[in-house]
């Protein structure tokens, strides 16, 4: 079963007012769609994880006419769940419709980032996935970040490594590069992945940074 890790970039005029807040205010550090229910009805229900000043976020919610209601649950000093219902608009419909089809599943969460970026994982059959991407609005820039065989376990901890970074990291573990004392050199790792030592070293540094950053973020949530 194939999965696609997809990045969507919304132009400013199509951004949701709340996601525009991420760009305009330093008060909100993270806005993640944890789960959602999109039915044939005109109102949709979503559960968000929000990290930052929840008062600023809540004030922004109150200013958006199509948000019907919301409820905030505090997790810790900066983390909150926000459960809300909102009226679907034309942009939502253009986004959701291509993904609501037989053979395609959107796997939460959807991570909203600065500069109008949303990242999500979509799994399914090759043809429906291709058709879904083709039917996404032209004004929303779509980039496929990764393609692979889906395994739910990998999403329990996914630092977002590129294929080459993963290959370098796997080769380093297999050769004993991370053993103490070290049982392999960067040159041996490079030979395993058919790269120069400098390239292998760069892949390892970037992979290590991504893994450690993701781990610390995970611990903060935990």
What can you see in these coordinates?
This protein has 222 residues and is an alpha+beta fold. It folds into 2 domains: 2-156, no CATH class; 163-221. It is 36% helix and 32% strand. The chain has 7 helices and 8 strands. It has helices at 17-24, 54-62, 90-99, 126-134, 163-175, 186-192, 197-221, and strands at 2-9, 28-37, 43-52, 67-74, 79-87, 104-113, 117-124, 141-149. The chain has an 8-stranded antiparallel sheet. β4 and β5 form a beta hairpin. α6 crosses α7 (197-221). The longest helix has 25 residues, at 197-221.
What can be said about the biggest beta sheet?
8 strands, antiparallel
* Total beta strand runs: 8
Uncertain regions spanning at least 5 consecutive residues: none
Shape: globular
Counting DSSP H or I runs of 4 or more residues, the number of helices is 7
Q: How many domains, as an integer? A: 2
The arrangement of helices and strands along the chain is EHEEHEEHEEHEHHH
Radius of gyration, whole Å: 20 Å
Class by helix and strand content? alpha+beta
Percent range for helical residues? 25-40%
Compute the average pLDDT.
89
Roughly how many Å apart are the termini?
30 Å
Strand ordering within the main sheet? 4-5-3-2-6-7-1-8
Strand content: 25-35%
